[in-house]
UniProtKB/TrEMBL annotation:
CDD domains: NirB_Fer2_BFD-like_1 (cd19943). Residues 468-516 form the BFD-like [2Fe-2S]-binding domain. It comes from the Eukaryota. Residues 1-22, 444-463 are annotated as: Disordered. Pfam families: Fer2_BFD, Pyr_redox_2, Rubredoxin_C. This is Nitrite reductase. It comes from Rhizophlyctis rosea. GO terms for molecular function: iron-sulfur cluster binding; metal ion binding; oxidoreductase activity. Residues 453-463 have a biased composition (Acidic residues).
Length: 524
């Protein structure tokens, strides 16, 4: 049991007041302590190692889990291979080879901003020059009666998944997932893969309400039903019942046109997936400003209310907004690393002013995506949509009043043009086609060539500076440069590995493939 092993290890450590204190690093090299070894914490370390050409920093990293940083976006794959090593973002040797002072399974328990030290659960106290909080988020557990019963789980870490697998194998034939958002649907897919009869309870009137409109949400529910998953919208979970362990869930149902009623559903297991909350307790205890509803408050330089202490990722509250996607966290990590490695005196020329919350994913074999301001006020915009119930496809685009600028959109079933559309929306690029062409997948007018030699034109409508991969901040120019350096025989996978484009969520892979293919045809 991972938890009991950790507890045993912690109980054997000396009291904090007798623990060794590691002195500050020499003046020639400053220490950055990173609290949190998730995807964003690792990305920050990678960027510091890349940009710190003067080797002015020593990186010390504390991770709460026993695992090295792993890909939480790909957690559902764990139910297939059940190998933590398959999810790792970097091998153990990478940390050693890059001289990272790494402490796994040893969370920080306190921060002293006056003395600029942190103390870990093992009793280690270390001084820092800069402190970076990358503590991420945790699963939100609503105040449901009976939530402490055996058979109730959250879906967040590898340890959570191991617990779900073990319990399902021993005790469960049926599972209820509370929450129909992105994480809830991932949990539902996991339960289905475990051979469980699965039901999703969602408070809203349709699934993934934060990313999809009603049409797309209902199409997704129909797709899930075809796979054997029941969706009960308008379900407010009131109580988890059963003798000893989980046996039933009592919900208050409210469905438009059908009224309100109470319903009891038998089940053997419950997975709570009701959203996330920032992990800001360690910061709050240290007197660092946090939002009333959670989140470590940062400015545009990602600095907290305490000088020299920064925060990045899902633990952050920036301009009143929380960020529950990995791409904004990666952007924060890169910006902070650039500022910390800028020439002295510390100019801080890079700022974080918000992030594109576009998202593309594959759920139950169906591609879905939303980009830009996909819920823009209807009175100030124009909307066009297309529904194909036979092909299980839906597109909805939000346009400026004159129809010349793409503001946002929702895609279901066909996301081939997602990256291009997201870039058009982000850059406010004037459309050169009609809304009808846009729905038909025609993004640019037919090319009129007066010469058989088009070698000076790659046929790509994007500039080298345009961001192709939002997750890893990879521009078109970086991809083109990688192809030219590797040669015409290089594969798309080799370019992806080199640039990291398309290696996180995979949403931009079709566009990366297109750019690589076009680039190979050019004369260099």
């Amino acid at each position: 049991d991972a938890k009991s092993v950790a507890d045993t290890a912690r109980s054997s450590t000396p009291p904090i007041d007798t623990a060794p204190v590691v002195p500050p690093t020499p003046i020639a090299q400053k220490r950055i302590i990173v609290i949190g070894l998730g995807m964003v914490g690792l990305r920050f370390c990678e960027q510091i190692l890349k940009l710190d050409t003067q080797k002015q920093y020593l990186l010390t990293v504390f991770g709460e889990e026993k695992y090295h940083a792993y890909n939480r976006v790909g957690l559902t794959k764990y139910f297939t291979h059940r190998k933590p090593s398959e999810l790792l973002l970097a091998e153990a040797e990478w940390y050693h080879n890059n001289n990272l002072d790494l402490h796994l399974n040893d969370p920080i328990t306190s921060i002293n901003t006056a003395s600029k030290t942190v103390t870990s659960a093992s009793g280690l106290t270390i001084s820092y020059d800069h402190l970076v909080l990358a503590t991420g988020s945790k699963a939100f557990v609503p105040p449901i009666q009976g939530k402490e019963k055996p058979g109730v789980f959250v879906y967040r870490t590898i340890e959570d998944l191991d617990s779900i697998i073990s319990y399902a194998q021993q005790h469960a034939r049926r599972a209820i997932v509370v929450g129909g958002g992105l994480l809830g649907l991932e949990a539902a897919k996991a339960c289905l893969d475990l051979g469980l009869q699965t039901t999703v309870l969602e408070r809203s009137q349709w699934l993934m309400r934060r990313q999809l409109d009603r049409v797309a949400g209902e199409m997704l529910a129909a797709t899930m039903a075809d796979m054997g998953i029941t969706t009960l919208n308008g379900s407010d979970t009131r109580e988890i019942g059963g003798e000893g362990r989980v046996g039933e869930v009592i919900v208050n149902r409210s469905v438009e046109g059908r009224g309100r009623w109470e319903e009891t559903i038998e089940t053997d297991m419950v997975v709570l997936s009701c959203g996330i909350v920032p992990r800001d307790k360690i910061a709050s205890k240290a007197g660092i400003e946090c939002g009333k509803r959670g989140g470590i408050v940062v400015d545009d330089f990602l600095e907290t209310s305490v000088s020299g202490v920064y925060a990045i990722g899902e633990c952050v509250l920036h301009r009143g907004q929380l960020f529950g996607l990995v791409a904004p966290g990666y952007e924060m990590a890169t910006i902070l690393a650039k500022n910390l490695t800028s020439p002295s005196p510390f100019p801080r020329t890079h700022t974080f002013t918000g992030s594109d919350m576009s998202a593309k994913l594959k759920l139950f074999g169906v591609q879905v995506g939303s980009f830009g301001d996909y819920f823009a006020e209807e009175t100030q915009t124009r909307h066009v949509s297309y529904v194909d119930p036979i092909g299980n496809m839906y597109k909805r685009f939000i346009l400026s009043p004159d129809g010349k600028t793409l503001i946002g959109g929702i895609l279901f079933g066909d996301t081939t043009d997602f990256s291009r559309l997201a870039l058009y929306s982000k850059n406010k690029t004037p459309l050169s086609v009609s809304p009808l062409d846009l729905l038909a997948g025609i993004l640019t007018p037919p090319k009129k060539s007066t010469s058989s030699d088009d070698s000076d034109d790659d046929g790509d409508e994007f500039e080298d500076s345009d961001q192709i991969c939002a997750c890893n901040d990879v521009s078109k120019g970086v991809i083109v440069a990688a192809v030219k350096e590797a040669g015409r025989e290089c594969t798309v996978d080799e370019v992806r590995k080199c640039t990291k484009a398309g290696t996180t969520c995979g949403g931009c892979v079709p566009l990366v493939e297109d750019i690589v293919g076009r680039c190979k045809k050019l004369e260099w």
